[in-house]
Amino acid sequence: MAEYDYVIRGGLVATAADESRCDIGIRDGRIVALGASLGAGEREIDATGMIVLPGGIDAHCHFDQPMNDGSRMADDFESGSISAAFGGTTTIIPFACQMKGGTLRDAITDYHGRAEGKAVIDYAFHLIVSDPTPGVLGQELPAVIKDGYTSFKIYMTYDDLKLNDRQILDVLDVARREGAMVMVHAENSDCIAWLTERLEQAGKTAPKYHAEARPPVVEREATHRAISLAELVDVPILIVHVSGREAVAQISHAQSKGLRIYAETCPQYLFLTAEDLDLDDFEGAKCICSPPPRDAANQEIIWNGLERGIFQVFSSDHAPFRHDDPQGKMLHGKNASFSKIPNGIPGVETRMPLLFSEGVMTGRLDLQRFVALTATNPARMYGLYPRKGTIAVGSDADIAIWDPRKDVLLTNDMLHHNVDYTPYEGRQLRGWPRWVMSRGELVVDDGKLTAKPGRGEFLPCDQPTPARPASARQPLAVAE
Ligand code: URP
Ligand code: ZN
Ligand code: ZN
């Protein structure tokens, strides 16, 4: 009888800490052995010449999230999780969104209903807290954190979601007491409303004006404010989808003071610019997201922040709205003002291949940094480590086997999401995952889906255990 259910043989196995050429033995969905010349597996994968990495964790993606404006997300847990798996991701963490006037429990129950029987990979939930009533702060939030919903996003913009500073302080205070992680969407709402009104009054309504309504100073001010509020309460926070220099400066300053300020960025801030919003025939709407993509100099700042450890997490912020669709980007028609166009960009499948090709294969990021950003740090940040996010004895066998020689011309046709475009159409990439395994089961086998919807399990999260940001590490105290 074979010693293992699966053996992955002879690949270069990399984690956030190191790399070595070894075999991986898998039994009952877990990694049980790492070593040279392991015994036989019932099934084996020859990974010679391949790079074997922990399956990615996309800790910021939106699937089937109820919307207030009549728009509809194109991906549900089935298409979204399939698309994620094809791009090397084995855990997704989308958002159960509290509606104003609604409860957190209602949001969670509704979202479990939407996920039920659909996902091909494992999933956890973040919460979006949009209505922090005394009941939510005093009872619901502490109770759901104990139940495994240990992270939540708060918004400083969007009328239906935003919190004022007093409300933010209250939410941060609960997070400090209960040991939860707060993700902050940092843009100044009043500045955006004021700029939008002026642009629209001047007839400047084309998609490209979205970027003018949300300039870097708007993000900088809110980032600074969020950091100050977190410092006041003495709680770690994570600033999501950071777009460029101004916010990076605030975050890096806070980290250098020793504050536990964490940060996430996304592919759109490395590979798109505001010029992508300035395309004729409503094409620019495809790249409307918030904060907006900036320019080449800002892309460079983001790369630099990834290299230097200012960012801990690299997520997709997959927000899937079809372009040619009255429930998508065309919600109010082609001539609608930018302010009426649903915000968001698809990217759950391309997140890791883009960073692998343009970061790892170009030598900008080493494999350890790539794994840390895409898998290990998100697992730590959101209470899933070490079950997820690494290759270690005892961890779930969530593994992506990458072919670093595979050349891929990216087109929307080859992707598995339900969106009718990718903003990265026509890009030439090097490297793509060939086999993807979730809890010891092959879900993608050399380009073919081999998993049934519904096999993905819900993951209650523990308390976050993030490492301090690299730039905020204190010297090791050693007794004389
Ligand atoms: O434009 C974006 N980022 N849409 C998704 C929602 C969010 O704020 O993350
Ligand atoms: Zn956001
Ligand atoms: Zn988002």
Summarize the structure in words:
This protein has 480 residues and is of the alpha/beta class. It has a domain of 318 residues: Metal-dependent hydrolases (TIM Barrel), CATH 3.20.20.140. Helices cover 29% and strands 21% of the residues. Strands 1, 2, 3, 4, 5, 16, 17, 18 and 19 form a nine-stranded mixed sheet that branches. Strands 8-10-11-12-13-14-15 form a seven-stranded parallel sheet. The protein has a three-stranded parallel sheet with strand order 6-7-9. Helix 1 links the parallel strand 6 and strand 7. The radius of gyration is 22 Å and the shape is globular. The structure holds N-(aminocarbonyl)-beta-alanine and zinc ion (2 copies). One zinc ion (ZN) binds next to loops.
pLDDT averaged over residues: 97
Number of distinct helices? 12
Which ions and ligands are bound to the chains?
N-(aminocarbonyl)-beta-alanine, zinc ion
Q: How many E strands?
A: 19
Which structural class best describes the helix and strand composition? alpha/beta
The oligomeric status of these chains comes to: single chain
The helical percent reads: 25-40%
Please state roughly what percent of the residues sit in beta strands, choosing from under 5%, 5-15%, 15-25%, 25-35%, 35-45% or over 45%. 15-25%
Q: Which CATH-level-2 architecture of the domain at 56-373?
A: Alpha-Beta Barrel
What does the radius of gyration come to? Answer: 22 Å
Which CATH class of the domain at 56-373 is shown? Alpha Beta
